[in-house]
Amino acid sequence: MTLSRRSMLGAALSLPVLAACGGNAAEAGGRKKVRLTYGAISVPKTRGVFEKTLNDQGIDVEWVGPFPNHAPTLQAVATGTADFSFGGSSTPADQALLSGNKLTYVAWASSKPRLSSIIVRPQSGITSVKDLAGSNVAVNKAGLGEFLLVAALEKYGVPRDSVTFTYLNPPDAAPAFGSGKVDAWGIWSGPMELAEVQYGAKRIFTDGDELDRQIDFSTYLVREDYARKEADTIRKVIAAYKAEADWANAHQAEAQKIGNEVSKYPQAVVDKIVAQNVQISWSLMNDDGIAQLQAGADWLSERKVLSGKIDIAEHSVKL
């Protein structure tokens, strides 16, 4: 076996954990600091249990954000202003790796049901994916939205060149959708339910209903040098995130109420999200995660959502 990036990381992780450099330097008394990115809805940040759990283990938390989606958190990690991405879509993570960023996967999650959808306004006259020919659809580039649109067009035989892909992140896509500047929107849970309540949006293609397997996964990434030096910190952080997800799975209404203290969604939106009862299961990177992310990446690269092929094992560490 050649000495790959993955094997070099693995060898480093077998050594005693070293004090990190930069923003995660060991603090007085042997304490650590970890810089975590977060989104508009962050139950771990708002509830307080997550931070206390890490504090009790000698780790102080600095929150960096909020961020609208996964891609900018990856940039924050790559440039050294944060230590962890925020548990978002694997598609932009794959593209960030293909673009040369020295990041590595450390954790992944599957979710059920998979609710990301292409939505339309009632006034659009669009009632099915086949009606998208000649339309303008908002998606996040090399992200979950673009993957979803590509999958929908392929399944229903709509030529990709008959649809205009308008690349917008959620903060810009939402008003464009609401004002009719775009005809449809590929989006995930949260902004999706808000659009349903605000604009009467309808789902015409939903991931879990239309696709027989998951292609895009929630993931955490760190810098390669951070993974070499901070294996124990990574394990503790991911364990704390997993505990938060397990709690939220069992306490949906309370979790959404806490998260909504920041997002300020109307109660009707919160009620819709709670009723869907999405269950998220986090794990450190393992053989199953590598295999599933690889299958998803292969699908995406074959359809040129990603700029090339990627070997997920070469960009993962199993802790």
Automatic annotation (TrEMBL):
Record-annotated SsuA/THI5-like domain positions: 55-255
- Has the keyword Transport been applied to this entry? yes
Q: Name one GO molecular function term.
A: ATPase-coupled transmembrane transporter activity
Endpoints of the signal sequence? 1-19
Superkingdom of origin organism: Bacteria
Q: What is its main location?
A: periplasm
Question: What InterPro entries does the database record attribute to this sequence?
Answer: ABC_SsuA_sub-bd, SsuA/THI5, TAT_signal
* Localization per record: Periplasm
The alphabetized UniProt keywords are:
Signal, Transport
Say if the entry is tagged with keyword Signal: yes
Instruction: Give Gene Ontology CC terms.
Output: membrane; periplasmic space
Query: What SUPFAM superfamilies does the record point to?
Result: Periplasmic binding protein-like II (SSF53850)
Which PANTHER family does UniProt cross-reference here?
ALIPHATIC SULFONATES-BINDING PROTEIN-RELATED
Q: Would you tell me the protein name for this molecule?
A: Sulfonate transport system substrate-binding protein
| Species this chain originates from | Pseudosporangium ferrugineum
